[in-house]
């Protein structure tokens, strides 16, 4: 028996055992960005004052006049030709192109549209057309508008605050 065990151990020692622990795949991704600008401090956390609007005015015109606001870029790199802007935020439950109003006591049946320089609605999550840029140390003012839009009638009075973030895609 002892001889058989020794023979078995010798046989196992001669047989090479190999166990693959698996293949490790490493995926490394990056986004190399060139031709960028700096976003001015005033544009990074700005508040756009939209004014006061009567809820009854939405029965006559289902949107308010467009209120302008500007995003300012500065110190654009030499190769900067243009930028597209994508706005994101909580979408209105009735119209996903509009920002939802945030907070307790918010107005009802209304959302906030963001419009481009030509006053065309920019759907949330979709980039604008190309805004041209000039390289150099000066400021680049990008024109946008905010506009309240009724999603159903009657609009009920309340706070009408909305939050959005924006992302820049340089060309």
Write a structural description:
The protein has 171 residues and is an alpha+beta fold. Helix content is 12%, strand content 28%. The chain has three helices and seven strands. The strands form two sheets. The chain has a four-stranded antiparallel β-sheet with strand order 1-2-6-4. It has a three-stranded antiparallel β-sheet with strand order 5-3-7, with no helix packed on it. It is globular.
Query: Residue share in helices?
Result: 10-25%
Low-confidence stretches: none
Helix count equals 3
Q: Which percent band covers the strand fraction?
A: 25-35%
Order of helices and strands: HEHHEEEEEE
Largest sheet: spatial strand order: 1-2-6-4
- Radius of gyration computed on alpha carbons: 29 Å
Counting DSSP E segments of at least 2 residues, the number of strands comes to 7
Largest sheet: 4 strands, antiparallel
Q: What is the structural class?
A: alpha+beta
